Amino acid sequence: MLKRKDRPKKMASLSSYEGLSGAGQRRLALTILSAVQSWGYREVRLPSWLELERMAAPLARLGVETCKFIAPDQRVLVLLPDPTLGVLANRVELNEGDNGGSQALRLCYWSDAFRATGQGGWSRLTQVGAELLGPSSPLADAEVVTVAVDAITGAGIENFRLFMNDVALTEGLCDCLGPAAAGQALQALSQGDFVTLQRLTASDELLRHALNYTGPAQDLTVLLSRLAESGRYARDLSRRVLDRARYLEQIAALVAAAGYPAEIVVDISLVREVGYYDGFVFQILARGTGTLLAGGGRYDTLLAEMGFKNTGGAGFACNLPELVDLLPAAPSDEPAIDYLLRAATPECIPRMWQEAGRLRRSGHSVTLDYQVGTNSDAPANVRVKTIKIVNGAPGAGSQAGSTASCRQEGADYEQL
Amino acid sequence: MSSYKNQWLTVALPKGRLAGETSSLLVKAGLLPPGTSDDRTLIFEDRENLIRYVWLRPADALTYVERGVAALGIAGKDVLEEARAAVDELADLGIGRCRVAVATPGGKRLAEMTFPGRPIRIATHLPNITRRYFEQRGLPVEVIYLRGSVEIAPRLGLADAVVDIVQTGRTLAANGLVEVEQVLSVTSRLIVNPGARRGGDPRLRRVITAITSTAAALASVEKVATQ
Known about the structure:
Number of strands of chain B: 11
Largest sheet of chain A: 9 strands, mixed
Helix content of chain B: 25-40%
Oligomer: heterodimer
Radius of gyration of chain A: 28 Å
Shape of chain B: elongated
Low-confidence stretches of chain A: 1-19, 399-416
Number of helices of chain A: 14
Radius of gyration of chain B: 20 Å
Helix content of chain A: 25-40%
Order of helices and strands of chain B: EHEEHEHEEEHEEHEEHH
Low-confidence stretches of chain B: none
Strand content of chain A: 15-25%
Number of helices of chain B: 7
Shape of chain A: elongated
Strand order of the largest sheet of chain B: 2-3-1-4-11-5
């Protein structure tokens, strides 16, 4: 192992690589996957890297700085920056999922993704997520959202808000400002610049209200109906935004029908850092703090760029570290151990191994203490057995944790 | 689950140039008590509402809001444009007025500056704003990043011009520099973490309303006074 001062700088800066410790993270991931799989999603294993040349367009659409390296055959490879791209790259390889939208292909994953931090380092994201390839409809989008809600509640988090939007709806509303201001308004929204947005919409109260809208889907439909009836905007444009609002209303109604008490909010400004999502988008945020618990959306254009013909796609991902911070009780990293075995003398070590094997075969978990002859404290709820010589042969004694209550485990063993 | 109702809501405020006006605005908004020190006491805690106000370097205030450690903050437009951080800019507070400008020795125009074999060298502590500005103008420049005392760079031969914050222009004049182009008009902005904005914490709404309504009232008073 390199000493700290000898390590290359980039390796040293990979500080987030370890992330959460293994066992707790695995339990959380499996809990979420279990909720996702209950909808019929099949877990897939993702590639560790993508080939830059073949994935240039999707990577550009993702819009993040990637970690690149060069293979011995001179191909430029990119450490997987986003699990969805890994799922899709695999589907292209397998010629699977491109069925013209006639059938649904449900896939889920638990994967790491790597991105450059922009400060000379890399960061690792551990995500659990799901993709629904095939149909492109409010039903499919509502399913993806509801699966995500199931995953979050399955992990034990129940106090959250669900935000949704349609990127095409926001673009349509910006187009209502006219060609000169539309681009500026969309840029302002994508940068969270509400000051510029207020200036651009100062002379149109109805449109200002629509572009700042945050609230129930059905109220948005009412608002946009008024906007369409005002006759101030091109008829096809008014119809387009109204259609997208009705699309959101259908999704909201379906998600609500699943019976979750979560607040469902349409937020027209939800267009920032949406990457390859170009239609329906959603985020699930912790109530109060606003921590992002899960996010996702529809990426039909991305699929078309990757060669899928008339096939839609939508998905979501949860970042595990954010979820852990909000869990009622952090998942334990300690393995469940029934017995701790110790040897009283070096001669007893073979017998200690024998006894450990017997206990494991009978369904117990056993760990060994190699400090011969010591009586150091054991973790709570772990039975301690000390193997010692009884009548010329190694035997064992046991005690529950460090308490005085003892338990006889076999006729050959002596209690300590 | 940890409830936000038992958690501090943090508001990040800028130390230094903007501290006085920011403190005054928050006192008028009823959020800070009169006499609250600006850049000496680094934290003020409203224990009744579990809201804390922290004074930080302007760029750090932005980082705290972007990372969600602070839900809300105040930052200059120059800091926002330089970092292009993922925060929402809710309101122009109309305080901390200044500008980012190009200044040259003796007020020489950039178009008149030619140096054989090299581009114009611009010293600045705002390299991203500077690069974008000159790219938009189509003028090739070499941007030299400095952390401070930018205005002495031309005198010492490090740069041909500077891009710097200008309030009165006195510091520039003292170093033989004259403002020749305005890059950006700057005021302080109320910023919020996008997730926190959507999180639904009623304390956040109350603080935002108090600050924006006070700023709007002060702006209208100022408008009347200047008419």
